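Readers of this paper often ask what the protein records in our data store actually look like. Such a record has a labelled line for the sequence and another for the backbone structure tokens. The tokens are whole numbers drawn from a learned vocabulary of local backbone shapes. We quote a single record here, exactly as it is kept in our systems:
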Amino acid sequence: MNVSTERALPANVRTLPELLAWRVAGTPTAEAYRHFDSNVQRWVSTTWSEFGARVTRWTMALASLQLPRGSRVAILLPNGLDAVCLDQAALASALVPVPLHALDNPQSIAYILSDSDAALLVVAGETQWQAIAVLGAALPALRHVVIAQKDVAAPCGVGVPSMHALVPWLERATVEAKTAKPSSNVPPTEQDLAALVYTSGTTGRPKGVMLTHANVVSNVDAVLARVAPKTDDLFLSFLPLSHTFERTAGYYVPIAAGCCVAFARSVAQLAEDFRAVRPTILISVPRIYERVYAKLHEVLSGSALSAWLFDQAQSVGWRRFCRAQSLPSSETGSWIFDELAWLMLRPLVARRVLAQFGGRLRVAVSGGAPLSPPIARCFLGLGLALLQGYGMTETSPVVAANAPDDNDPATVGRPLRGIEVRIGDNSELLVRGPNVMRGYWKRDDDTQRAFAEGWLRTGDQAAIESGRVRILGRAKEIIVTSTGEKIAPADLEMAITGDPLFEQAYAFGDNRPFIACIVVLNPAEWERLAVGLQLDPTAPSSLLEARAVAAALERIGALTLSFPRYAQPRAVSLTLDPWTTENTLLTPTLKIKRHNLDARFAAQIEALYRH
């Protein structure tokens, strides 16, 4: 299928620095960002003009380091003004941002620093830097480390030519710039890299996805046309900026639309921030909607009347939604009755539920992982414009998305403007367009395998129905958690079975909030462990003992230390019964049958996610 390529952005906006310059010039006094200042205990605003001045200051500081064009700049900062200022300054300097997850483990960070040949690392705190440095990783390209705190101790583990504390570094660069010669910096072109974003692959090691300015700007332009944010819209940013979904949809799109972004304090304080900020647009993964949904059921379980009203509101609202979208519905009901009932159910139920999001949401986007139908039905029925989309890091990332006036939650919507999709072998979804990556950093073979005759292979099975894309499943074995993280289970399982205690392992977590696993224990090793824990190794109940589970999980944690934090199992179930071809849990080539294991251990799996 092919679609229009008409641009929404001005013709002279071809790179991300040009996008920011256009925004600052267009609405200099409008609110750009809002953050909570813990010193004064209130939310503080920054205008576009003030933000542009901050970026200029950061750009001067980067210039003082005299990094060669195209050098990689690793950003290990939480969401906030410093993170976006550094990102914009690096882009303006024709450097390449390498966004890192602020909560990732040191081993994973060290790997990315080494693989990307990062010349500069800006890190939140000295403790985090030391945890990376003591690993003794080979980081010959790393020339500078900037720590966002007042005092910087001597580096340990890795020899870095220069260490800087953030505030003095910025102040010194600003002073020096007043007497320095005018910069001869050449701005980036469309084909220069705008980011090197690391994503997990089938090797277990994350791969660097090379995204150009043309890739990202084209995707921003296409998203604008589909969602159409308004200049008075307010985003609440809480997904890590190391995710391409948040970078494009929650960071660059608001710049293009002239919207304000408020940085959430933390996921733990998200409920409070919703009420304080009252966003109008939400960019989220399914897990947030799952949490609100679960909380609603927890509250409603204590009142039969409230539960009945909630069910009625969902049913009536869902029928109204289906009529408005011209979608078929298995639920029957008179439209006159529904409209009259909604006059009562909206203030009694819907408004109170949507108040959990601040009460002003007009658009809520869900991406990164599939959204379950019951949750979609709930929030759409209650009047929230919940839009599901589809994409991947390699496509900058949005490929398809629903729109407020064209929303079929059973699909991920229509391809964005300028993006082509088709179905290949084994029902695999193929994508082509200006948003598709240049390739994988230093991995030519992986890049070649990712494409088929010029089309990007997504690894997802899909169908195209009436112009909409419906995802059927994955053609490749990759777990996608409800937070949008991707993990190759085979590599995780291989790492776990490196310990003689674990003979077999099955990792899972698809559309779940975290990774968990089931392990088959070696009888002799289990006996030794059980005796050491003062448990009876012959008693089946010993496998359920908290001491045994904790000991196994501790060993699994050590075995998976090199994996990103989100890939490390947080729960485990123990068994002594081996998986064989005879009990249908292994293939003839001795590979585990995931679907069969899902069915066999359904009760144990559910129990792991209830705690």
Summary: The two ends are 45 Å apart (CA to CA). The first helix runs from residue 16 to 26. The domain at 488-610 is CATH 3.30.300.30 (GMP Synthetase; Chain A, domain 3).
